[in-house]
Amino acid sequence: MLSPLSVAHVTMLKYPVIVLVLTSFLAADVSATNFYRDFDITWGDGRAKILRNGKVLSLSLDKASGSGFQSKNEYLFGHIHMQLKLVQGNSAGTVTAYYLKSPGSMWDEVDFEFLGNLSGHPYILQTNIFTQGRGNREQQFYLWFDPTKAFHTYSMLWNPKHIIFSVDGIAIRVFKNLESLGVPFPNNQPMRLYSSLWNADDWATRGGLIKTDWTKAPFTAYYRNFKAKACIWSPSGGSSCASKSSSSRANEWLAEEMDLRRQKMLRWVRKHYMVYDYCKDVKRFPSGLPRECKHNPFP
């Protein structure tokens, strides 16, 4: 999940935003969210709190410790949505991580990492994918809104065809299944959903140049409206989707593709808001870019 990339500050670009009306999942699960039911607080010594009868969860960080939680269920494929409101003000040095991960030394992982900022400067959203213990697939973006002022939805669609990262329903990254070309893809290790808020001022803000200002602590991020259309994994019974057809309405996400509209929005995000792409970093890979960079138009 960690990647000590040097992140240079760039002034946030100002471009017209295409607003999408999202009703399918935002409205459906507001009343269904129950953090007591779906998650366990795993660390933080009281810094993580479940609020409003299970509808909201908060993570906090101070000089002594951060905090985190994990899902009760493991998933083998899923369409995961969570709304987050990030740490406000001077959050330099902090990282809010929201990710899927399997256990073991050859783990798979799908990451959203929100790199804190100095007041008035934009957050950087870093995405990464690990397969069989190997990552180094970072892509970084600015957001077209202030993620500290209101809740926004961050989604991961993980099916046998690809992994799609989305923000408020707009795809920002696609990692295709290219196993036929020898590129490992996470398709056989169940993953649990995790989130944490922690101090990473050795690398997170401008490559570690900006340190955490502990006079601003505690730093707090908020979560709500979790939804998972997913294949729940049971060690004794396998996947809950094993006996269900992907063509059924409930499991259409298992075969979901990128349509032309979503591809257009993806290109818009990459053109105007992408900060870093490992597939263009020839200095980092002097022996040649990773194989998926050649064959995947949006890795």
Unreliable stretches, pLDDT < 50, 5 or more residues?
Answer: 1-31
What value does the Rg take, in angstroms?
A: 19 Å
| Shape call | globular
The residue fraction in helices comes out at: under 10%
Mean of residue pLDDT values:
88
What does the main sheet amount to?
A: 15 strands, antiparallel
What fraction of the residues are assigned to beta strands by DSSP?
35-45%
| DSSP strand tally | 15
Give the H and E element order: HEEEEEEEEEEEEEEHEH
Distance between the termini: 17 Å
Category from helices, strands and their pairing:
mainly beta
Task: State the helix count.
Answer: 3
Write the layout of secondary structure elements.
Layout: H1 35-38, E1 39-43, E2 49-51, E3 56-61, E4 67-85, E5 94-101, E6 109-115, E7 124-130, E8 139-141, E9 152-158, E10 162-167, E11 170-176, E12 191-199, E13 219-234, E14 238-239, H2 260-273, E15 274-277, H3 291-295
Antiparallel strand pairs: 1-4, 2-3, 3-13, 4-9, 4-12, 4-13, 5-6, 5-12, 6-7, 7-8, 8-15, 9-10, 10-11, 13-14
